[in-house]
Write a structure and sequence with these properties.
Strand content: over 45%
Mean pLDDT: 95
Number of domains: 3
Radius of gyration: 26 Å
CATH class of the largest domain: Mainly Beta
Number of strands: 33
């Protein structure tokens, strides 16, 4: 058996054939790494050295990295601008340190200002840290003559202030990244950052820019985690399917290829790991990205992050109208954790307004409701769901041209046969996650891994998808090490 050249370690991953009722083609498998099944210290902290191969040990497989987390990044959530000197303050903490197109800025003032601007509230931590670092990205326009400014921070709620950038005349016209170590397990509720302006004399024309501000907390190793989606060309329904994960190559570049993980029948795959006002990205090649409204929040989900839809706040996501989201056959699927169960709450809604052309998948107090406009009429099918609040369930609905089927946690709940015709669509309507455009019927739940396919996924596919998302489809073998062209296997107990 071959070995991927340049990589030091690998593990065999086995797909349990008892969870796969028939052969599957181009199936996306979740690989969920934790400190119990993976030694993060032997891989790059960004996961760039992760690779997957088929059972021959060398044929590379397509994969998407949803998360590879040894660190937790947090940002401010509020600011104070006592002299109303700054513009676009919130762009100073948009949560994307790599985005240098957004910033807050202020011109030089006519008097001393302490504070000139202060960020005084922080996002909550998700766990304990072994180290905490504060970062600020900033620059000037290079025309300060004698006026000075400083960037200062406190880690005790304001009792003591320290210089991150010392008080001086600053004319750094390239973007600077200044950082400092805070307490190892810093309480972020006690962190504030402020800018101080010291006017000396004359009229300066200096401008100060703040590009981003954030903290990086190193998680306790027990909290390290990663999720990867791997496209397996062929999964057997009669024998275990094996593939490999490789790691341990310090100079590796990123090998992820997200759009090619999802076969051409996937028309939208929304991991919903984004937070705040960030675009909800579609991982398929269709780029059916979504826009959140009314404060849809990012929370921990079934798989990495998820979105928390609050019914009382009329929160939802809109995906612009696209022909790719108007198939003649369909699968709708998602992981949903209900916060309340009332009649009705829309998970997916495309059309179902005016002439009622389109499709929708709803959760009610006791039932699921699927609405599909097939041929010349609207089909509405209900079945009991048996859901409780506070628990994630995998739900799916399909139409294959002759039958509608509804599933929960990989099992068929009910099917309605004897149908015929294509799905017919309102081609002026977008796809909504979490609402109906006129009736409202807002979702009150945490939703994760929402997907639309242009085929009816089979029962075996749905069952395997449930087990994959539930982290019960695969098992992990012992670590193997490449050594002078030979492979040594070690069992990690």
């Amino acid at each position: 058996m071959g070995w991927l050249t340049g990589w030091t370690y690998r593990k065999k991953i086995t797909i349990d054939e008892t969870k796969v009722d028939a052969d599957l083609t181009n199936f996306p498998v979740l690989v969920k790494l934790t400190s119990t099944n993976f030694d993060f210290s032997k891989a790059r902290s960004d996961g760039y050295d992760i690779r997957f191969t088929s059972s021959d040990g060398t044929t590379l497989l397509k994969y998407e990295r949803e998360r590879h987390q040894m660190y937790e990044y947090k940002k401010p959530t509020a600011f104070s601008d006592p002299n109303s000197r700054w513009t676009d303050e919130s762009k100073a903490y948009d949560g994307d340190p790599g985005d240098e197109s957004t910033y807050a800025y202020s011109t030089a003032g006519s008097a001393d200002q302490d504070p000139w601007l202060v960020f005084n509230t922080w996002q909550s931590k998700g766990g304990d840290y072994t180290a905490t670092t504060l970062y600020v990205k900033w620059k000037t326009n290079g025309t300060y003559s004698d006026d000075k400014f400083a960037i200062r921070y406190t880690k005790d709620g304001g009792t003591n202030w320290y210089d991150l950038v010392p008080l001086a005349v600053h004319n750094e016209t390239s973007i600077q990244t200044s950082s400092v170590s805070l307490d190892s397990n810093q309480n972020l509720a006690n962190v504030q950052v402020k800018l101080v302006y010291d006017r000396i004399a004359g009229a300066d024309t200096g401008i100060t820019y703040i590009y981003d501000i954030w903290t990086r907390g190193t998680l306790d190793p027990a909290s390290f985690c990663a999720e990867y989606w791997v496209k397996i060309p062929s999964v057997s329904g009669s024998a275990n399917t094996e593939f490999y994960i490789y790691y341990g190559k310090s100079d590796a570049t990123d090998g992820a290829d997200p759009t090619n993980v999802w076969d051409s029948d996937f028309k939208g795959v929304w991991h919903l790991k984004e937070t705040g006002s960030a675009t909800r990205l579609d991982s398929t090649a269709n780029a059916n990205n979504g826009t959140p409204y009314n404060g849809v929040a990012g929370v921990e989900g079934k798989i990495d992050g998820a979105n928390d839809f609050e019914r009382d706040s009329s929160q939802y996501i809109t995906i612009a109208r696209s022909a790719s989201l108007e198939p003649t056959r369909i699968t709708m699927e998602a992981w949903v954790k209900a916060e309340t169960l009332v009649s009705w709450e829309r998970v997916f809604n495309k059309g179902i307004v005016g002439t009622y052309q389109g499709y929708s998948f709803l959760v009610g107090e006791t039932n699921f409701l699927v609405q599909l406009y097939i041929g010349t009429s609207l089909q509405q099918k209900q079945t009991a769901h048996g859901m409780s609040t506070g628990t994630f369930y995998y739900i799916a609905a399909t139409y294959d041209g002759s039958a509608i089927r509804v599933y929960k946690d990989g099992s068929l709940l009910q099917e309605w046969t004897g149908l015929s015709g294509n799905l017919i669509h309102n081609t002026s309507e977008p796809l909504y996650l979490g609402r109906h455009p006129s009736a409202g019927e807002y979702l009150d739940a945490v939703a994760d891994e929402c997907r639309i396919s242009s085929v009816a996924r089979t029962g075996p596919w749905i069952k395997a998808s449930y087990h994959s998302g539930n982290d019960s489809l695969v098992s992990y073998g012992s670590e193997e090490t490449a050594y002078y062209g030979r492979t040594l296997g070690f069992i990690i107990g």
